[in-house]
């Protein structure tokens, strides 16, 4: 078992991740082999397997790492789900999806499904965390917050994903206007007791 705190282990792990990210830009996921990753990272296959079970585990970690890199600190530390926080989540989710679908050559349905599910899960966790921090003044229980976070995350993710196929997909102002209004009005109705 490798010591995850050892600087050499961390450096090797990062080399593997960087090699994989580079290969994703140049090759389709299905075409990437462990041998390709190991050669690009200048390690042997055994070293790869000491860090990751397979390329799917590596994909999972890369997906999470990139997501956390893209979420602004202001969103990660938000204590309330405001219009501005909602807008940033919409834009970051759209940017993330575009990056994975266009830059990383999403060439296989299984890979796309794995990445989509991971993004949805991380978005949901981010939103739920913000809602839970703000729940004290709302007087809302944990289960309703989980449901609201799931609906909010689904609305943001689905709209951002759909926007990939819109003619003016680079004009995110339209996306933000539609989704932010939908999400914030829905949350406002819930906070007002459905009035």
Summarize the structure.
The protein is an all-alpha fold. The protein has helices at about 5-25, 35-40, 45-50, 55-70, 75, 85-105, 110-140, 140-160, 170-190. It folds into two domains: about 5-50, Arc Repressor Mutant, subunit A; about 60-190, Tetracycline Repressor, domain 2, CATH 1.10.357.
Question: Your description of this structure?
Answer:
Helix 1 crosses helix 2 (34-41). The protein is globular. It has 9 helices and no strands. It has helices at 7-26, 34-41, 45-51, 55-70, 73-76, 83-103, 109-138, 142-162, 172-191. The protein has 2 domains: 7-52, Arc Repressor Mutant, subunit A (Orthogonal Bundle), CATH 1.10.10; 60-191, Tetracycline Repressor, domain 2, CATH 1.10.357. The chain is mainly α. Helices cover 75% and strands 0% of the residues.
Topology, element by element:
Elements (H helix, E strand, L loop, with lengths): L6 H20 L7 H8 L3 H7 L3 H16 L2 H4 L6 H21 L5 H30 L3 H21 L9 H20 L4
Keywords: DNA-binding
InterPro entries: DNA-bd_HTH_TetR-type_CS, Homeodomain-like_sf, HTH-type_Tx_Regulator, HTH_TetR
Organism: Cohnella faecalis
What features would you highlight for this structure?
mainly alpha; 2 domains; Tetracycline Repressor, domain 2; Arc Repressor Mutant, subunit A; about 200 residues; single chain; globular
